[in-house]
Specification:
single chain; 476 residues; alpha/beta; D-Maltodextrin-Binding Protein, domain 2; 5-stranded mixed β-sheet; 21 helices; globular; disordered N terminus
Length: 476
């Protein structure tokens, strides 16, 4: 009898072990693996990996989800892998659940039906926690879902050689730090600076220095038209309209085209180098290119420590400040409802986790989640930069203030939209350079500087220039 009981107990124990093994095997099979392709390297990659480990051991473990973060190359390399998949179902099967993509590639992926949008897996309340300008860039039209989910963005600003500028305004006290806030006042400063530096060498005429440079003419054109209204790129209901408003482009022509011709604006392609060489007082662009230990050459050709101050991106109207943003966004590849939801759950978690700030600060970027950007922890972390890296501190404070105070903007993508921006900005740059050369030719031919300006910046020249702009627009 006892032997029979022992045998039965052994059988029961064996069954329990079998059921436990099956249950464990079933649990392992049920784990949803979410692959995330990114282009973070070094310190940023380390932080992301640690965040993924935390997620996997907490929220992921509870929900049966495992996040695998993979460095898939620079953004161009990731975009190239996606482009390969557009016409190949076999290649589509190798795509990750989440990927950081340029918006032009993401737009095409949407057209091929490869990615899904945030509204299917996030509530309006959840989306309201993110900067609206960041979200708008990821929508294809007014009534479109958010196909490109923002993780972080860079915001452009005006980066100024503090000592060089103060030396200038010691003579021109009519200007102040607020003079950097508007395009009109910026151009008045640029004219005064050109004349001031020209007078330093009375034996040489018309050799004044440029006051500033613009890093990205593409973002300048898009942002200026959005500030001025109407925007060059307009999102309608299920359509995109290109509106090259003549009055707006006349202002762009007078500001930049004629500004280059007059010598007020530098066309140096390396704006940070121009700032460090003392060739310009400031440049308008993205932070992060100036090194902490940078030097600059003063008016006497002596090397000095480069002290930086920052100002917001210039605007047309004081009551409508628009700041250009840039940076890839995350897309979720459609792999079924369960996988898609798990992917968006991770994106919500990682973008709202306070540790994302360390990735952002390393890349001079602003978190997409408003609560993280404005949190006391973030403010405290930025404050530590004051003594560790004062240059970075000034740039970051300006960038984060802009995100929390003003509107941010970048146009949505559409078919060949990358070509439109590149073509128009290239045309603006080349025509400005050509105009500058023409000015020099007139002066060498005996015309005065003023006479040459009147010829090269005449109304008839603008009309011809604007025809060139329309030629680009009509192709889209």
């Amino acid at each position: 009898m006892k032997k029979r009981i022992i045998v039965i107990l052994n059988i029961l124990i064996l069954l329990v072990l079998i059921f436990a093994a099956c249950s464990l095997r079933r649990g392992r099979d049920d784990v949803q693996t979410i692959t995330f392709w990114h282009s973070y390297q070094g310190y940023q990659q380390q932080i992301l990996d640690r965040m993924a480990e935390t997620y996997n051991s907490t929220v992921g473990a509870e929900n049966g989800v495992k996040i695998v973060c993979e460095f898939a190359g620079e953004d161009k390399a990731i975009a190239s892998k996606f482009k390969t998949s557009f016409e190949s179902e076999t290649a589509q099967e190798t795509l990750p659940n989440i990927a950081m993509l340029p918006k032009y590639t993401a737009y095409t992926a949407v057209k091929y039906g490869l990615i899904t949008y945030a509204e299917s897996y996030m509530t309006d309340e959840e989306l309201s926690k993110y900067f609206e300008g960041f979200l708008q860039e990821g929508r294809l039209s007014i009534d479109s879902g958010t196909y490109i989910f923002p993780v972080s963005k860079k915001l452009e600003q005006t980066i100024i050689n503090k000592d060089l500028w103060r030396e200038f305004i010691s003579t021109y006290r009519v200007f102040s730090e607020r003079s950097f806030n508007s395009w009109d006042e910026l151009m008045r400063m640029a004219e005064a600076y050109y004349n001031w530096t020209d007078e330093m060498t009375p034996e040489i005429q018309n050799d004044g220095k440029a006051f500033f440079a613009i890093e990205s003419l593409e973002s300048f054109i898009y942002t200026y038209t959005n500030q001025r209204m109407p925007s060059l790129i307009q999102s309608g209901y299920n359509e995109i309209t290109i509106n090259a408003n003549k009055d707006t482009f006349r202002e762009i022509w007078e500001l930049y085209h004629c500004g280059v011709i007059k010598g007020y604006i530098s066309v140096n392609s390396n704006v940070s180098e121009a700032l460090q060489h003392g060739d310009i007082v400031c440049y308008i662009g993205s932070p992060g290119k100036i090194k902490y230990s940078s030097k600059y050459l003063d008016f006497n050709g002596k090397e000095q420590n480069l002290n930086i101050m920052s100002a917001p991106y210039p605007t047309v109207y004081e009551n409508r400040v628009v700041v250009p943003q840039s940076g890839d966004g995350a897309v979720v590849v459609d792999k079924g409802d369960k996988a898609n939801r798990a992917a968006y759950d991770f994106l919500k978690w990682v973008t709202s986790n306070q540790n994302i700030i360390y990735i952002c600060l390393a890349g001079y970027e602003v978190p997409s989640c408003i609560d993280v950007t404005s949190s006391q922890e973030t403010l405290d972390e930025i404050a530590t930069l004051f003594t560790k890296n004062n240059l970075q501190y000034n740039l970051v404070v300006c960038e984060y203030n802009q995100a929390l105070t003003y509107n941010t903007y970048a146009p949505v993508a559409f078919t060949d939209s990358d070509k439109l921006g590149k073509n128009i900005s290239k045309f603006l740059l080349n025509s400005s350079k050509a105009g500058r050369s023409t000015l020099q030719s007139y002066i060498e031919g005996g015309a005065s500087y003023k006479e040459a300006i009147e010829i090269v910046c005449a109304d008839a020249v603008f009309e011809q220039w604007f025809v060139g702009i329309l030629d680009f627009v009509e192709g889209f």
